[in-house]
Amino acid sequence: MIELVIDQRRRNLGGFDVGRLLPAASRRMVGPFIFFDHMGPVDFAPGLPRSADVRPHPHIGLSTLTYLFEGEIMHRDSVGSEQPIRPGAVNWMTAGSGITHSERFEHARRHGGRMNGIQAWVALPDADEETAPGFEHYEAAALDSFEQPGVWTRLIAGAVFGKRAPVRTFSPLFYLHQELQPGAVSHVPDAHSERAAYIVRGDVEIDSRRYTAGQLILFAPGHDAMLTATGPATIMLLGGEPVGERFLDWNFVSSSRARIAQAKADWRAGRMRLPDLDHAEFIPLPSEPGTPPNPLS
User: Fold this and answer.
1) Which residues, listed in sequence order, are joined to residue 116 by a DSSP beta bridge?
2) Alpha-carbon gap, residue 251 to 121, rounded angstroms
3) Cα 251 from chain centroid (whole Å)
4) CATH code for 2-240?
5) What's the CA gap between 4 and 10, in Å, rounded?
6) Nearest by Cα to 247 from 148, 126, 161
7) How far is CA 53 from CA 24, 30, 168, 187, 280, in A?
8) Residue 124 has pLDDT above 70, yes or no
9) Distance (Å, whole) CA 297 – CA 159
10) Could you give the C-alpha distances from 132 to 38, 116, 160, 222, in angstroms and in order?
11) How far apart are CA 297 and CA 293, in angstroms?
12) CB atoms within 10 A of CB 197
């Protein structure tokens, strides 16, 4: 049974568009997933301007999860990580008590090429909001993938179907990439109270109704859920248990408004910045309260 359908809202970043699904006016979170953006798809020409990059900026109280279908992003952060993100790999950065990072399209600037991927933010539970910041990266070969008739699945994060991804998560969740052949049926895991499917490419039928690329389908708890592909389709399945009320202000997530105010003060005062990170300007804190977060974290 479908509880809600959210259509992506397209936003232009100056160099390309993203489609935002979460947070939405009708639903802020799915389990611990508090932010969900589809980057592209877009074809970059060589010489992409640097204004398309995401300059160094801070986070607290969350983990970012970047997953690409096509393209490459260079990640750098204040715990010393420098890692190109390529298709099928998992880039999991835990902000916890505070981290600063940047994301740059250096490969596309040199060579051009297609960019297509998803960035999600996962809110940390109360006990882990102030955990030490960290970074984990797993290439596609390190992740479990498995096949059923007409359905190829890669487990990106969390645990499902008796399997567990290597990345360390902080609350119960699952996150899957699936490729469906025409007529194939995908069964949405029922292990958690909040579940959703995002259609990246193609169309699917659910309960005899058709849904298309760019839609996030949320399923009611306690009901079986399955999707049938009407043609070749790419979908992301996600879900988990709620972590409680969370405030989202710019790039900061927390159970406490006071903690967000402290993080903003720290950013303004330069206490979260490393001058040599990426050898670039830092993103200024917006002056208006409640400014939406950057489309890329």
Assistant:
1) 70
2) 10
3) 13
4) 2.60.120.10
5) 19
6) 126
7) 25, 28, 28, 37, 11
8) yes
9) 24
10) 28, 30, 27, 36
11) 8
12) 26
CA distances from 165 to 6, 122, 145, 175 (A): 27, 15, 10, 9
**CA triplet 268, 91, 193: central angle to 5 degrees?**
95
What are the Cα distances from residue 35, in Å, to 19, 152, 233, 243, 290?
Answer: 11, 25, 23, 14, 15
Q: How confident is the model at residue 172 (pLDDT cuts 50, 70, 90)?
A: very high
pTM > 0.70: yes or no: yes
Burial of 167 (0-12, 13-18, 19+ CB in 10 A): buried
Which tokens hold the place of 81?
């990580």
| Proportion of the chain above pLDDT 70, given as a percent | 94
Confirm if 257 and 19 have CB atoms less than 8 A apart. Answer: no
At 174, the amino acid letter reads: F
Q: How many Å apart are CA 118 and CA 113, to the nearest integer?
A: 17
* 95 contacts 133 by C-beta, under 8 angstroms: yes
Three-state SS for 230? coil
Confidence (pLDDT) at 283: 80
Cis peptide before 41 (omega within 30 of 0): yes
Residue type, 239: G
Amino acid at 206: I
Amino acid at 215: Q
Give the chain's end-to-end CA distance (angstroms, integer): 32
Residue with tokens 């998560």: 169
The answer to whether 176 and 118 have CB atoms below 8 angstroms apart is no
Single-letter amino acid code for the residue at 10: R
In the chain, what are the helix, strand and coil shares in percent, each to the nearest 5? 10, 50, 40
